[in-house]
Amino acid sequence: MQFKINPKNPSGTALRVIPVFEDHSEKILKEKLKNSGLPKTLFSGKKDSSYILEAENQLVLLLGLGENPEYKTIENSFRRVLSKNSSLLESEVILDFPDSFSHEQVEAALIGFQLGGYSIGFYKKEKPKDFNKLKVEVRSEAKKIKSLAERAEKIAAAKIEAFKLVDLPPNKITPENLGDWAKNLSKKVNVSVKVFDSKKAKSEGLEAFLAVGRGSAKDPKFIILEYRHPKAKFHLGLVGKGVTFDTGGLNVKTQGMHHMKSDMGGAAAVLATTQLIADLDLPINLTSIVPAVENAIDKDAYLPSEVIGSHAGLSIEVIDTDAEGRLILADGLSYLIKNYKADQVIDLATLTGSAIGTFGYECAALFSNDGALSHGLQQAGEDVGEKSWPLPLWENYGKEMDSEIADIKNYHGKPFAGAITAAKFLEAFIHEHKAWAHLDIAGVAFSDTEFSKTKTGTAYGVSLLLKFIENQLQ
Questions:
Q1: How far apart are CA 220 and CA 204, in angstroms?
Q2: Does domain 157-473 have CATH number 3.40.630.10?
Q3: Which residues contact 59 (CB under 8 A, 6 or more apart)?
Q4: Which residues are marked as active site?
Q5: Which family is annotated (predicted)?
C-alpha cells in the first residue's frame, strides 16, 4: 500500500472512510460532511455499525465505533474496510480521521486497515484481491502523523507474518522452514541467528527437545535470535513453542488434528515480535528462542513411560507424548536462562486444552513468579485487546508432577488443573529465575473470527509484547 499523509490535492474519486464515535456523531458528521442531513435512525455511530452514502460527489463509508472504543474495536472496524467492503474500492481510499481521534486510535485504525488486506487463500487458483498497489490518503491532525503511519506499517507487517506462519499448511511450515525464516530475517534487520540441527542440539544437551522430534522425518531445529541495541534499557528473553504439527505422538489425537498446524502459535508470536522490535529499533536487548519440531509417529517415536533427559539435567518420565510442548519449552527456557542474562523471561505456547476449558477463547492463561511482570503483561494486554488472566503457581500443584522413577513427569494424568500443572512443570526448568512468565495461548492464537470462514491465526502476543516492552521504556 502507498500512504500519502494529508495530501494537498486530495482525490475526489476515492472511497472516503470516516470513523464516528457514537457520543460525538453529530459533531463529527457536521465536521466532515457539512449538512448531510443524515438521520440518527439510519446511522448513529453505534459500535460495529456502518453506512454508505454519497456526499459531495464522493462515495463515503461511515464506521460506527460506539462510545469510548477499545483499541481492538477500532482495529477490527478498520480491518473490515478491505476485508468486507473491497467491492467499493478501485485504486484509492481516503482515511479521514476526526480531530478527536487520539494518537493511539489512529495507530489502531491504520494497523487494522492493513490487516484487512490479508487472506488465507494462498493456494487458490483464483488469487485473492491484491491491495499492494492501493493508494491510501491519510487525513489526520494527530502529531507526527507520518512517523505514526510508518510505525503502523511495521506493526501490521509483523502481525501479518504471524498470521502466515500459523495459517500456512504444515508441509510448508516445517522446522527447517522456520529456521530459514529466521535466517532471512537476519538479512533484513539487526538480528543475528543461530539454528541448531539435531547433531548440534545433542551436543548442547537438548535431550527433551530431541525426544519430541524423534518420530518425524523432518529434522528439528533449535532457533536462537539475538537483537542487541547500544542503548538497551533491559534484556528480555522470549521462548515460543514451535510444534509445526502435532499428531499427539503415540498418544495420538482423536479429534481436531487438522487444526494442529497451529501448534506453533507461540513461535509465530515470538518470531514476529522479534522482527518488530528490530524494525522499530527499540532500545532493549532481546534474545528469542524457538524450539521447532514436528511431533509425529514412526518406529523411532518416543514412548509413553520412557524416561528422557533435559538441558537442565532433570530426568523426565513421559506419561503422555501429547504433552510435548512443555518438553521442548523446558529445554528452550533452560538454555536461554543458562546462556543469556535476561532480566525477564516470557514464554508463549499453545499448551493446554485446560486453558480453553478455564477461559474459553477470551484470554490467555497467565502464570508468573513475579507480581510486577504479571501485572505489566495483564495491563498491556488490556490496552491492546490481547487479554490474559493470572492463575496460581502454588506449590501443592507441583506435587502433582512428582515421579517415582524420574525427577519429574510431564503430565499428571488427572482431569483437573491441567494448565496449572503444565506451568509448574515449566517452572522446574527456569533455574529459579526471579522474573519469569508463561502465557498459555491455546484459546487465543488460532480462532474463529469474522474475517474467515475457518479458524485462522490471530497474531496474539505481538501487540501485547510490544506494548509491554514500550511501557517499560517510558
A1: 14
A2: yes
A3: 15, 16, 52, 53, 88
A4: 253, 326
A5: Belongs to the peptidase M17 family.
